[in-house]
Amino acid sequence: MLVERGLGVMNVELVSEAYAIAANYLRRSGAIADTLVTDEHLLGIIVKLLHQGEFNKIRLANKAIARFEAETGARAVA
């Protein structure tokens, strides 16, 4: 799936790890459904951030969470 999107092989692990971190947080906060299905919107955000030059998985996940919440109006439950 990620290779089809034009990502290089060495970036697949980075995207996968950042997605796992962000999705775990968003599932726990109730912003996305607790399923095994990939949230395409979140994945798209992470890919865009990667193409913009962010290569640190923690910053990538945090920025993706912030952007996802801003775009969807989701709120984290404390």
What would you note in describing this structure?
The chain has helices at residues 9-29, 40-51, 57-72. It is mostly helical and 78 residues long. α1 (9-29) packs across α3 and α2 crosses α3 (57-72). It is globular. The chain starts with 8 loop residues before the first helix and ends in a 6-residue tail after the last helix.
List the helices and strands and how they pair.
Blueprint: H1 9-29, H2 40-51, H3 57-72
Helix pairs in contact: 1-2, 1-3, 2-3
Condensed summary:
The radius of gyration is 12 Å and the shape is globular. It has 78 residues and is an all-alpha fold. The protein contains 3 helices and no strands.
Q: Compute the CA-based radius of gyration.
A: 12 Å
Q: Total number of β-strand segments?
A: 0
Order of helices and strands: HHH
Structure classification = mainly alpha
Content of β-strand = under 5%
* Average pLDDT rating: 85
Distance between the termini: 33 Å
Please summarize the sheet with the most strands.
none
Features:
78 residues, mainly alpha
